[in-house]
Amino acid sequence: MYFCTMEKDEIKLKILSEISKTERVIVEYKELTMPIAPDVSIGRISRMDAINNKSVTEATLRQAESKLLGLKRVLSMYGTEDFGKCIKCKMQIPLGRVLFRPESLYCVNCAR
Q1: Long-range contacts: 19-23, Cβ < 8 Å, 24+?
Q2: Got the DSSP string for the chain?
Q3: What pTM did the predictor assign?
Q4: Are 81 and 92 within 8 A, CB to CB?
Q5: Are 33 and 58 in contact (CB under 8 A)?
Q6: Which CATH superfamily is domain 5-111 in?
Q7: pLDDT in the model for residue 39
Q8: Pairing with 44, which of 23, 61, 90, 94 sits 20 to 30 Å away (CA)?
């Protein structure tokens, strides 16, 4: 089973939308992970909270950057015979999974 033209167009729009959204989120996360200047007057506990929040945001930033790379990779496959196929088993990835996680390169079984 292959995606019809309408489904491919829907998938492409979803990928482009996710790329745009992810790029905006990455900019926000980068701003939140900027170093806290030591001369900024916040209490010791608040500084510890800020450092902890920064590390959590940095991890989230890495995940968003990884997602963006995956989205761009899938978009580069658009129009090829490998588009929408699992890179491991070469079976068609179900449309629902592609729309839910457009950066998916694996079917549900191979992703486990």
Answers
A1: 19/68, 19/71, 19/72, 19/75, 22/64, 22/67, 22/68, 22/71, 23/68
A2: ----HHHHHHHHHHHHHHHHHHHHHHHHHHHHTSPPPTTS---HHHHHHHHHHHHHHHHHHHHHHHHHHHHHHHHHHTTSTTTTB-TTT-PBPPHHHHHH-TT--S-HHHH-
A3: 0.81
A4: no
A5: yes
A6: DksA, coiled-coil domain (1.20.120.910)
A7: 61
A8: 61
State pLDDT tens for residues 32-80. Answer: 888 766 666 666 667 777 778 888 999 999 999 999 999 999 999 998 9
Q: Cβ distance 47 to 37 under 8 Å? A: no
Domain ranges of the chain: 5-111
C-alpha 68/C-alpha 66 separation (Å) is: 5
| Alpha-carbon gap, residue 110 to 107, rounded angstroms | 5
